[in-house]
Amino acid sequence: MYDYIIGQVIRVTPEYIVLEQNQIGWCIYTPNPFAFQITDTNQQVFLHMHVREDIQQLYGFKTLEQRELFRKLIQVSGIGPKGALAILASGNPSQVITAIESEDESFLIKFPGVGKKTARQMILDLKGKLGSLMTDQTIIIPSKDDELPLFGVNPNQHQLDEAILALSALGYSDKELSKIKPHLEENDSLTTTESYMKQALQLLLTLK
């Protein structure tokens, strides 16, 4: 069983990253691929290998807390790896754990693929078992001052489009994304795909 891998991220897509190690490119699915940067320096990715009869896939995470919560989530009936990635995409496991511990079904059903039955199952299966993971305090909303775009043209349209594609890959519907896209376009402080992703996830959690 793999625990982690260290190498250079050479490609970032809306669904996965490619990490090169010893001239081998590893395809790794991750909650928010754009949280990883393409650089010449090595990066550590914590791994989970998912094996079925028809497929073998690697899932990667920036922190141990994210990976361990992922492993807990996929043990819940009704939640597969893709659903668990969507829940973790906010980058804030403590927010999810708090919702489970407080039996906040209304928060949990905001994630794609999670209905009331699955939310209740999450609470029944995981409540009281996640305390050791309450250490990740990742800030969701970035703050950065940038120049206003000229003549109504968004200079970061490519980054916005990438974020929308990534959210779609996580399971958010076109209807949900169309509701938040105008708010993202109006926010001049967002300049990177990752910042668009984080802000979009915050907005999506207020829709329902």
From TrEMBL:
GO terms for molecular function: ATP binding; four-way junction DNA binding; four-way junction helicase activity. Residues 71-90, 106-125 form the Helix-hairpin-helix DNA-binding motif class domain. Pfam families: HHH_5 (PF14520), RuvA_C (PF07499), RuvA_N (PF01330). InterPro entries: DNA_helicase_Holl-junc_RuvA_I, Hlx-hairpin-Hlx_DNA-bd_motif, NA-bd_OB-fold, RuvA, RuvA_2-like, RuvA_C, RuvA_C_sf. GO terms for cellular component: cytoplasm; Holliday junction helicase complex; Holliday junction resolvase complex. Keywords: ATP-binding, Cytoplasm, DNA damage, DNA recombination, DNA repair, DNA-binding, Helicase, Hydrolase, Nucleotide-binding. It is found in: Cytoplasm. The keyword ATP-binding applies. GO terms for biological process: DNA recombination; DNA repair. The keyword RNA-binding does not apply. Residues 155-208 are annotated as: Domain III. CDD domains: UBA_RuvA_C (cd14332). The RuvA-RuvB-RuvC complex processes Holliday junction (HJ) DNA during genetic recombination and DNA repair, while the RuvA-RuvB complex plays an important role in the rescue of blocked DNA replication forks via replication fork reversal (RFR). RuvA specifically binds to HJ cruciform DNA, conferring on it an open structure. The RuvB hexamer acts as an ATP-dependent pump, pulling dsDNA into and through the RuvAB complex. HJ branch migration allows RuvC to scan DNA until it finds its consensus sequence, where it cleaves and resolves the cruciform DNA. Has three domains with a flexible linker between the domains II and III and assumes an 'L' shape. Domain III is highly mobile and contacts RuvB. HAMAP family: DNA_HJ_migration_RuvA. Belongs to the RuvA family. NCBIfam families: ruvA. Homotetramer. Forms an RuvA(8)-RuvB(12)-Holliday junction (HJ) complex. HJ DNA is sandwiched between 2 RuvA tetramers; dsDNA enters through RuvA and exits via RuvB. An RuvB hexamer assembles on each DNA strand where it exits the tetramer. Each RuvB hexamer is contacted by two RuvA subunits (via domain III) on 2 adjacent RuvB subunits; this complex drives branch migration. In the full resolvosome a probable DNA-RuvA(4)-RuvB(12)-RuvC(2) complex forms which resolves the HJ. This is Holliday junction branch migration complex subunit RuvA.
